[in-house]
Amino acid sequence: MAAYIIVAVRVGAHPAPYIHEHIESVRLSNRTILTRAQVIAKIRARDTFTTAGIPPGRVYVHNCPQCGTGDYITTHPDSTPTNNLLHLPRF
Questions:
Q1: What is the model's pLDDT at position 10?
Q2: Would you list the domain boundaries of the chain?
Q3: Which among 17, 20, 7, 24 has a CA at the least distance from the CA of 64?
Q4: What is residue 16's predicted lDDT score, i.e. its pLDDT?
Q5: For the CA atoms of the chain, what is the radius of gyration?
Q6: d(CA 73, CA 85)
Q7: Dihedral sign, Cα of residue 53, residue 57, residue 63, residue 68
Q8: What does DSSP assign to residue 29?
Q9: What is the CB-side half-sphere exposure of residue 19 using CA atoms within 13 A?
Q10: How far apart are CA 64 and CA 73, in angstroms?
Q11: What span, in angstroms and rounded, lies between the C-alpha atoms of 2 and 62?
């Protein structure tokens, strides 16, 4: 098992009729870029991902709450919006 810290994200728009952002890829603290599919595969292999926010947000695989698409990565909800994946810097 490995632990990774996500410091930035690249997003793409999900097509109509549910127009909203999905994470397409992430940049890790070691500057490695992983696609959403790679992150999901690593999470399913028991690796862990957190965001660089304070406190860090734990990343997990879930269905998108807006469109129901599977294989979506998100953070566990808490009272700290700055540790949310969509609040991280973009690259």
A1: 96
A2: 3-87
A3: 20
A4: 63
A5: 12
A6: 8
A7: negative
A8: T
A9: 2
A10: 8
A11: 20
